[in-house]
Amino acid sequence: QVQLVESGGGLVQAGGSLRLACADSTRSFSDYTMGWFRQAPGKEREFVAAINWSGSTTDYRDSVKGRFTVTRDNAKNMMYLQMDSLKPEDTAVYYCVAGADVRVQAWVQVWGQGTLVIVSS
Fold this sequence. Notes:
The protein is mostly beta strands.
């Protein structure tokens, strides 16, 4: 089973950009659908983005469409979330996830430890 580690979080001003990265230490990356969830302070964990095994299909929650882009590089066992035009409401802990269908939380099989993104106004 994959083991996931996120990086790239930090503090940015509204309108700025960050790129999150997710690394698989087991080199089983291409066996899974991958994606991102997030959990904002005081709110439930929510789906952000997903990408299939080959990278040919992606999906996003409506609030990040046009601003976030998820990509993967199976040869490097890496997945990325490019976040542009960040808003204060994007502030959350972001989790790299893997599973059969990571658009649905119940089907997520593996969670990373999370990386914190803070967007100041």
